[in-house]
Amino acid sequence: MSIGTLDDALARLAHEDGVLVRVEATEGSAPREAGTWMLVWAQGLTATIGGGQLEFQAIDEARGLLKSPAAEPLRKRYPLGPSLGQCCGGVVHLSMRRVGAADAAELRRQLTEHLAPVAIFGGGHVGLALARLLATLPYSVRWIDSRDGVFPDALPAQVHTEHSEPVQDAVATLLPGTHVLIMSFSHAEDLDIVIACLRRLRERGDLPYVGLIGSKTKWATFRHRLEARGFAEAEMARITCPIGVPGVTGKEPEVIAVAVAAQLLQRRAAAG
């Protein structure tokens, strides 16, 4: 799903009906996982359920619904074998229903509720690059800064901005399971956010990833300050610094964003 895909789809619904096609369940090997969606229009598509003959047949079925306004929603089972000319060998269960302008708000909720939560602390260039990139991936982004007026006006539907002063207070209200990325405009704020995350981990242990942007030297300095505040070695080991997959070089915001997103996806895959 490209940046703006969901936003573009919801805007298009104001002018024409479409058919929402969702992967409800899969069995065995399948091109996409449950929750994947696409919107089929009389002309064109938004997003994809994996391509190939599966998608081709689903589009044909969906356009049949568009031609019949009174048609009931469909749920169909597609074996991915010789009949579809796909060698995945699994089974995909699809649902299809006609949607229009009145469904836009509910669709926004449905199509973002399954996304994994990420919190980005810091409204700078790297934060912006990350927010835009993560919005193209299966993440819902909470983007937080202590300063007013730092966020751009136009952002994807999966990105929600928030002003918090002091910024570390927002840590207490993060959803359980949130992946945290810390990259504020000052090292002092970064340290305050790290301390808030470590305290939450001590109390609830429900932040699976806390990443701090910076060098090994920065982390060494932070470690000394955290030790002085009573944090143990095992607690500090919960912080990832530097962030991003090894081997990706370059300090451009977009390069850093790619490396960090790859690290989050690796951890997501490892967690199943």
Automatic annotation (TrEMBL):
Quote the InterPro entries the UniProt record gives.
Answer: MoCofactor_Util/Proc (IPR052698), NAD(P)-bd_dom_sf (IPR036291), Xanthine_DH_XdhC (IPR014308), XdhC_CoxI (IPR003777), XdhC_Rossmann_dom (IPR027051)
The protein's name is Xanthine dehydrogenase accessory factor
Against NCBIfam families, the record matches this protein to:
xanthine_xdhC (TIGR02964)
XdhC- CoxI domain ranges (all copies): 14-69
Q: What sequence ranges are listed for the domain XdhC Rossmann?
A: 118-264
Q: Which Pfam families match?
A: XdhC_C, XdhC_CoxI
Quote the Gene3D superfamilies the UniProt record gives. Answer: NAD(P)-binding Rossmann-like Domain (3.40.50.720)
Q: Which domain of life is it from?
A: Bacteria
